[in-house]
Amino acid sequence: MTQAEYVQQTLAGLDPSPDGGIDPALPLYATTFVVLDLETTGGAPDGGGITEIGAVKVRGGEELGVLATLVNPGQPIPPFITVLTGITEAMVVPAPPIEQVLPSLLEFLSDAVLVAHNAPYDVGFLKAACARHGYRWPNPRVLDTAALARRVLTRDEVPNRKLGTLAAYFRTRTQPSHRALDDAKATVDVLHALIGRLGGHRVETIGDAIEFAKAVTPTQRRKRHLAEGLPKAPGVYIFRAADDRPLYVGTSGDIATRVRSYFTAAEKRARISEMLAAAERVEAVECAHSLEAEVRELRLIAAHAPPYNRRSKFPERMLWLKLTDEHYPRLSVVRDLSPADQAYLGPFSSRRTAELAAAGFYDAVPLRQCTHRLSLRTVTPACALAELGRCPAPCEHRITPEEYDRRAAAPFRAATADDPQVVVDALLARIEALARDQRYEEAAVVRSRLVAVLRAAVRMQRLTALTGIAELAAARPAARGGWELALVRHGRLAGAGVSPPGVHPRPTLAAIRATAETVPPGHGPVPRATAEETERILSWLERPETRLVEMSSGWSSPVRGAARFRDLLAKAEAAASHQLSTERS
Questions:
Q1: What phi and psi values does residue 388 have, to the nearest 5 degrees?
Q2: DSSP string, 393-437
Q3: Rg (Cα) of the chain, in Å, rounded?
Q4: φ, ψ for residue 561 (rounded to 5)?
Q5: 87-144 pLDDT tens trace
Q6: What strand order describes the sheet that includes 62-70?
Q7: Any stretches that span the bilayer, and where are they (predicted)?
Q8: Are the CB atoms for 55 and 187 separated by under 8 Å?
């Protein structure tokens, strides 16, 4: 029989999503605890080695049950363990092995918070035993009395946080003796004494107690009250300074839970610690559903540019690669599109990516790279690119405007608005030729240009398909029944709401439409919203459970558009990522 591999990780129950089913908002006095202690042979957790289990179930100071048994560890007990615990091999030979004890123990642990002194040790042995013998570890919430004592008691009160020291300090009814049940009973009294101290720290729920036991900074502990009174609903939260200036904007499906997480040990980001020190209050903006919350977050970040938000702060800095309106057009990187612009690609988040895409087109088609405004009457001296055969030299009138348009400008227009086949074929041919000549670094550069062109074309055509629709209504089943509704106009979220369970959503949709934002049409792929907002909406609309209710016009993409090269794009990106990781290693 193959032994299941076990790797000890962080303390179970302190994970982000324990499966114990205990509401973190449950008051401590109403919480059921199972206080547990193990005696072992002293080795590492490997699925065996447990010699005794003692567990006491309590709630509200009342003892509800006891589980205690010796366990056959399946291995010799070292002499020093026998001296320490008094447990001999003769005592454990008739005892049941751990695989026979686990079912009863796991049932005893169900619907309770597991408490132990130095809990990672005990939990590690139990998880290893479950893994070895095929039992699912229930991942209960765990409270470590040793960690809790480190937060509650000072060095002036106790010299250390050993169970014996704490038992003596709190004068427990049972003194620990290195026997499982005695130690568990002593831990019960220590737990109750520590809970009595938590009130002064404004810790009243089991979730607060577990988080309080973790190593949080003094700033987090001092500012925990900022998380009080917030709604358990989807929406946006804003940390504000003393002068009401927004410091940080975030979004969550549960505002209260998310904001509380900023005051836990799991939050280790230096910039967030700095933000918390400056924050004086948290403002919550409830939203109908997650999509509205995401959109409001983006708009607030764009409007206020909070200093501690890193992304989405400056949507106005997006760039475009456009074909100029000349007899011999060229590519130009611009910040804004005008209604006269008819051939363009973007938006790009940086000039570097825009210029990388431009280089891809220069590799594929004979677009001129000079910045002169050429005349049909006057000849301008040609540059070195003409001599190298990289430019058809329209400056010297070696090519007619019609031929230049056919060979150079038309492929750009087709690649951005419809079919990029000509550009893709040319770049693939160049990559293949370079690779054949073993010029692999140059081939990798051309590949990166291909990625930039395809990524931008796919993105723009997706955006254009949605922003061209004057109005679109969509619905998605809500988690608690009813429907999440969204009204989208020209790629901008114009209205949102939730219809109640058991009620037809049409009246709610009609009310949303009547109060929705008016969004006029505009020029470009993102005429009335940021690209990021429209992409958030696209992601929501493209989920399998989302249903399109009404559209003012059809939603379609070019049959031979850039999206058909998604597989090629994915392979090129994967190859580039692999090359980068290899170079870094």
A1: -85, 0
A2: -GGGTSS-HHHHIIIIIHHHHHHHHS--HHHHHHHHHHHHHHHHT
A3: 33
A4: -75, -175
A5: 999 999 999 999 999 999 999 999 999 999 999 999 999 999 999 999 999 999 999 9
A6: 62-70, 50-59, 32-40, 113-116, 142-144
A7: none
A8: no
pLDDT at 298: 96
Active-site choice (178, 192, 304, 397): 178
Question: Whole-model pTM?
Answer: 0.71
Whose CA is closest to 270, among 217, 213, 211? 217
Per the CB < 8 A criterion, the answer to whether 447 and 431 are in contact is yes
**Nearby residues of 117 by Cβ (< 8 Å), 6 or more positions away:** 37, 144, 145, 146, 163, 183, 187, 190
pLDDT (tens digit per residue) in 16-71: 344 456 888 899 999 999 999 999 998 788 878 999 999 999 999 999 999 999 99
> Helix/strand/coil (H, E, C) string of 26-50?
CEHHHCEEEEEEEEECCCCCCCCCE
CA distances (Å), origin 24, targets 17, 30, 116: 11, 12, 18
- Measure Cα distances from 125 to 130, 415, 482, 570 in Å: 9, 61, 45, 44
| 117 labelled catalytic | no
The DSSP-derived string for 320-363 is: EEEE-SSSS-BEEEES---TT--SEEEEESSHHHHHHHHHHHHH
